[in-house]
Amino acid sequence: MATSEKNILNRLYFVAGCMFIFALLVTYKLVSIQFFQGAKYREMAITATEKMVTIPATRGNLYASDGSLLATSVIKYDVRWDAVSPSEEHFNEHIVSLSKGLSDLLGRPSSYYQNRFRKARATKNRYLFVARDLSYSEYIKIKSLPLFNKGQFKGGIIIEEHAEREHPLGKMAERTVGYERKDDSGYYTRVGLEGAYGHYLRGKEGRRLKQKIAKGEWKPIGVGNIVEPRDGYDVISTVDVNIQDIAHNALLASLEKFKAEHGCVVVMETATGEIKAISNLGRTSEGKYYEDRNYAVYESHEPGSTFKLMAMVAALEDKVIDTSQVIDTENGRVKFYDRTAIDSKRGGYGKISVARAFELSSNTAFAKMINEPYAKKPKRFVDRLFNMGLNEKLGLEIKGEGSPEFPYPGDKNWYGTTLPWMAFGYGVQLTPLQTLTFYNAIANDGEMVKPRFIKQVKEWDVVVETFEKEVINPKIASASTIGAVREMMENTVRRGTAKNIYSPDFSMAGKTGTCQTEYWIEPNRYISSFAGYFPADNPKYSCIVVIHKPEKSIGYYGNIVAGPVFKKIAQKIYTDTPVIDEVDLSIENEGTIEKEYQGYYNKVNKSYKTIPNVKGMSGMDAIALLENLGMKVRFRGSGNVHAQSMKAGEKLVKNQTITLELL
Predict the structure, then answer these.
(1) pLDDT 10s digits, 483-515
(2) How many Cβ atoms sit within 10 Å of the Cβ of residue 500?
(3) How, if at all, do strands 471-473 and 448-449 pair?
(4) Cβ-contact 529, 545 below 8 angstroms
(5) Whole-angstrom Cα distance, residue 222 to residue 210?
């Protein structure tokens, strides 16, 4: 009996000991959690119910050189409703009138909204969707409806805003304007000006605290942001909207006429390298054309006869030829090893001077002209081309520039026919913009300037950065060579291959180009081009037109397909958009616009109380002025302000929306 009681006591002691040890472990864990791991678990609890979300900054505007908007961010508003916040009294009093107001604004029946709100109230839905992508004026109207006008805490209205990127010019120059997109992994895709200058445009993100509510939804806590976002800077490009419109439509007309696959046009200001227009159009399967890829920047291809200018400059600089030297084109067919150079004119041109060979674009003459002096020392010819910078990229800020490609003596792809074929543009590859940069240097008395797409970066009316002319090569050739080839290019239009675009009223200079492409696939695929500048005697602009794969039965020579596009652009620039400033600079005009404008700017930070008159200002300046005064600006069109929705002199209230008509 005593033994049995002793066993029972031992068991009790064992159980008690285990319970004591368990209690010690629990106590240790509680102390550990409280004093050593408390911060960790508190953070986990907060993370499960609260999180810091990113508030995107409003992206800066991208402007044309005249103030027309190329890309802008438009604020849109989403409306949701917290069904728990309103009191029972307020809910019952206003639900009918709120539903009717929403019905009038959004179009659905009043009963639809009543049913949704009552169901949300019953299920305690704290994040009910009401409307999406509202404009500012629509948002203000919804915010003023019964119940919603009591705000977030008493009325339950939740407002979320986001920015959408819009292109006021539509599809014109869309690829050049481009975009910048960030995926879920944080990787950016950058295209065009938006991508190249995204570090200016995107601004700095803010942060805001949100709380987790029912059904995994999150709603903002409080009325303010913890960290306010900083809006992006505005970027002013070199693009001229009028010239862009001219270039776009001239290119489109030719593409449609010749049923070409794709094409591009670039217009550059000679002295500065500013790109005034750049259009890239590709054909869809339905035969329509749209801004496809940036062919002018990325697409390297054999330039054909437009390369004869480079070959001519190299030979003249090396003094292996002179312009009066006579070359026999024989019967228009000259054999080099196992290949034959052929002129477009059956029977050839007979014996002609070097200058005339350029004007007539004789392949046989150029093949002989380059091969004979350089055959034993081909490196001299190629090195001369390299010394002029033709083998280097331009270093554009826009992503995706194609690489120039040149064969070099000793390479495995250098053959006996490589040198004579290089003379008329085969075996080398350049992008249209690289070719134009060389032509522009000839027009610019030998100074090669880098193509430039941007003029300034601004924050409101304050200039953050200015982009100046950048010289790539101060002198690509001697003055005598430059003068000689300029005369040849002018004569090409006057009496050579481009005489079909000659006008006695307007001078142009340039070179036609016609070359086969993808000839290893099938014959009769061509690239038609024209590069040059205008006016011929005092160049203001240079321009290149490149059109791929026109339908041969309609036409494929450069003078027929690309030349008229060049002529149309050149003439329209001087007739429709004169380069001479014709703005009325009278005292009256200066007083009504410029002085008034400056006065408003001086008062921006001095509590200016009335709406200014912005008629006549550029869109860029008017928008900056009004936004700086605290107003919300909407606009239609591009150019200068033609009309404003609020009269000048009316009382200024911050966050008012004003609509501008731009022409």
Answers:
(1) 999 999 999 999 999 999 999 888 999 999 999
(2) 13
(3) antiparallel
(4) yes
(5) 9
CA distance 118 to 410: 83
Which 8-state DSSP code applies to residue 557?
-
In this structure, which amino acid lies at residue 209? L
Sign of torsion over alpha carbons 560, 566, 567, 569: positive
Please report, in angstroms and rounded to a whole number, the separation of the first and last CA atoms in the chain.
113
Number of Cβ atoms within 10 Å of the Cβ of 294: 24
Angle, alpha carbons 212-186-460 (nearest 5°): 90
Residue-wise pLDDT for 552-585, tens only, equals 999 999 999 999 999 999 999 876 544 443 333 3
Token pair recorded at residue 512: 């036609």
Q: DSSP character for 425?
A: T
* Burial grade of 432 (CB within 10 A; 0-12, 13-18, 19 or more): buried
Q: Please answer whether residues 135 and 636 qualify as being in contact, where contact means their C-beta atoms are separated by less than 8 angstroms.
A: no
CA distance 488 to 510: 9
In the three-class reduction of DSSP (H, G, I as helix; E, B as strand; rest coil), residue 548 is classed as: strand
Q: Tell me which residue of 268, 258, 253 sits closest to 514, measured CA to CA.
A: 258
- Quick: pLDDT tens for 73-126: 777 889 999 999 999 999 999 999 999 999 999 989 999 999 999 999 999 999
Query: What is the number of other CB atoms lying within 10 angstroms of the CB of residue 197?
Result: 25
Contact indicator for 208, 164 with CB cutoff of 8 Å = no
In contact, 219 and 158? CB cutoff 8 Å: yes
- pTM value > 0.85: no
